[in-house]
Amino acid sequence: MSDSAGPENPPLAVPGAKRPSRLAMPWQTRWLGVAFIAVVFVLWEIAAASGTLPALSFPRMSAILATWWSLIVSGELLGELVPSLLRMFAGYFLGVTLGILLGLLMGYFRFFYNLLEPITEVLRPIPSPAYLPIVIIFLGIDDEMKIFMIAFASLFPVLLNTYSGVRSVDPIQLQTARTFGVAGRKLVWQIVLPAASPYIFTGMRVSLAVALIVMVLSEMVAASSGIGYFILSAQRGFKIREMFAGVLTLAVVGYILNRLFVAIENRVLAWHYGYTQQQRN
Amino acid sequence: MTGPSRSFLHIRGVRKAFAAPGGTTVALNGIDLDIERGSFVSIVGPSGCGKSTLLLIIAGLVAPTSGLVFLEGRKVESPPPSVLYVFQQYTRSLFPWKTVERNVTFGLENRESLSREAIAARTREIIGLVKLTGFERHYPWQLSGGMQQRVAIARALACRPAVLLMDEPFSAVDALTRVGLQELLRSLWRELGLTVIFVTHDVDEGVYLSTRVVALSRAPGTVAVDLPVELPHPRDQISTRALPQYLDYRARLLAQLFADEGLIETEAA
To answer: How far is CA A144 from CA A222, B6, B61, in A?
Structure first.
């Protein structure tokens, strides 16, 4: 290893988060993609106005956006979104916590791996809609069912990634900790979890998308509130503009959630990005 | 069970065999060493002679197949608090999610019931000793290789160990950085009254640093040469290395290593 990589190196930067953009033209940046979305909207508008698209199922984009805006202003959309997000986060955090816990146990103790690996592999491939009827039998159609569905689906990506992360902790880090007398629960908190955190975050990000999907799904099957229920009942009542407004809302919510997640991840794992970039150089 | 009395570190009949494809490989075959308090012992030998394994056994990180290690009369079965280990691969032994400062306090926070102020004071002192003042908030991977290894040394020394075990700690840095680290280690050893066991494949480094050099023979590893190094202190990278005694030690050790490798035909001294 060269000794020239001196302390003059820039302080903790997050590579990949920002590209040098001082001299970049708009078409060299993400604004190109934003403009593309606008173009799609305009084409939709034209197609709907000219009758190229069936007017009944494809209202003008301007009408959809107007309806969307009025639903936002009236607070109706928020009223549907809040219970949905509460369910989603309840289920998500339950699933993530359990996933990390089980992943740690399986990565740490051969016994738990042997015990739980087969059942994990059997349950994991089942698509959520398939076991939804079973869950309804046991938990009914209220929040318990939805939270369970979301938690169960979010569990597996976190579990598998945590397991991989725990298995990949550098044995030299573990030996180092042992020479300092760090073992047991302290070792898990101070070494295993931080070292495995890049893996855990990857799992959590996958689970977040899964949680959103299962939330909408469970609300469409059985609910009297929530954004999934709102979209489906709008469609059944031929309120097509409202239906599209609901879908747009989900797109925005999904986007914001992902950006929030990335922002947190970049903060918590800043060391990891710096470290891996240094290793690559 | 007790070891020999009035003792410091004793290695008795240590043997280590590994399961290998097609049988077992004997890495160490009956090592006996008595190490005095305050000495600086280098272990040299060809790669694969088991010198790193011996160090891991002394550290209590690896159990010997047979034989015993005694530290101050007590049998070593798990890592003793007074023994700390500096690994060759500093990039892997430092914790990349902790800053320099947090890496150095790692041992202190976990082993000793010191007040926050005492930990901060000792950390500041030790970071000064390894000349890293000003880099407390950096992450290890933002530093050069030599600086990273100094962080690892500081982390160990902060706990004031009686014995410092070092496994080729300077082999991954360039020659000039290595000279700087050698001088740093020698001054720390003298100032802090440490006992150092230093594994290296570099005979010159071993002779220059040590009060005693032990050469192991190729697997199965046994003690081939055990050489007290009686060079005057303080030592100097240029004049010490030019002393006739120095050259004599060096020649005797190299003759053993080269003969072991089949590079020359003369018998070892």
So the answer is: 12, 69, 49
- Look at strands B83-86 and B195-199 and give their pairing: unpaired
Q: What chain B residue is nearest to A198 in terms of C-alpha separation?
A: B97
Instruction: Give the β-pairing of B40-44 and B195-199.
Output: parallel
The runs of H, that is alpha helices, within chain B are 51-58, 90-93, 100-111, 116-129, 145-157, 175-192, 203-209, 244-261
| Predicted confidence (pLDDT) per residue in B93-110, tens digit | 999 999 999 999 998 888
Q: Is B205 helix (H, G, I), strand (E, B) or coil?
A: helix
Asked if B218 and B49 count as a contact pair (C-beta separation under 8 A), the reply is: yes
Cross-chain Cβ contact B61/A11 below 8 Å: no
- Tell me if A173 and B110 make a contact (CB, 8 A cut-off): no
Half-sphere exposure of residue B224: CA atoms within 13 angstroms, side-chain side: 28
Provide, as residue numbers in chain A, all residues whose Cβ is less than 8 Å from the Cβ of B174.
Answer: 2-3
Which residues face B198 on adjacent strands? B42, B166
Name B140's Cβ contacts closer than 8 Å, sequence gap at least 6.
B90, B91, B94, B95, B96, B98, B100, B103, B148, B151
Instruction: Please report, as a single letter, which amino acid is at residue A250.
Output: L
All residues of chain B having their beta carbon less than 8 Å from the beta carbon of residue A9 are 142
Contact between chains at B97 and A11 (C-beta distance less than 8 A): no
Taking phi first (over 0 means left), then psi (-120 to 50 degrees means alpha), and beta for anything else, what does residue A140 get?
left
DSSP 8-state class, residue A188: I
| CB-nearest partner of A271 from B91, B139, B147 | B139
User: Would you call A173 and B145 a contact, using CB atoms and an 8 Å cutoff?
Assistant: no
Give this complex's ipTM: 0.85
Residues on chain A touching B87 (C-beta within 8 angstroms): 172, 175-176
- Does A278 sit within 8 Å of B142, measured CB to CB? yes
Tell if the CB–CB gap between B59 and A179 is shorter than 8 Å.
yes
How many contacts (CB atoms, under 8 Å) link A and B? Answer: 92
Q: Which residues of chain B lie closer than 8 angstroms to A275, CB-CB?
A: 96, 139, 141
What are the tens digits of pLDDT across the range A117-159? 999 999 999 999 999 999 999 998 889 999 999 999 999 999 9
**How close are the terminal C-alpha atoms of chain A, in Å?**
10
pLDDT tens column, B122-142: 999 999 988 899 999 999 999
Residue A262 pLDDT > 60: yes
pTM, two decimals, is 0.84
Chain A: nearest CA to B79, how far in angstroms? 5
* Beta carbons of A95 and A153 less than 8 angstroms apart: yes
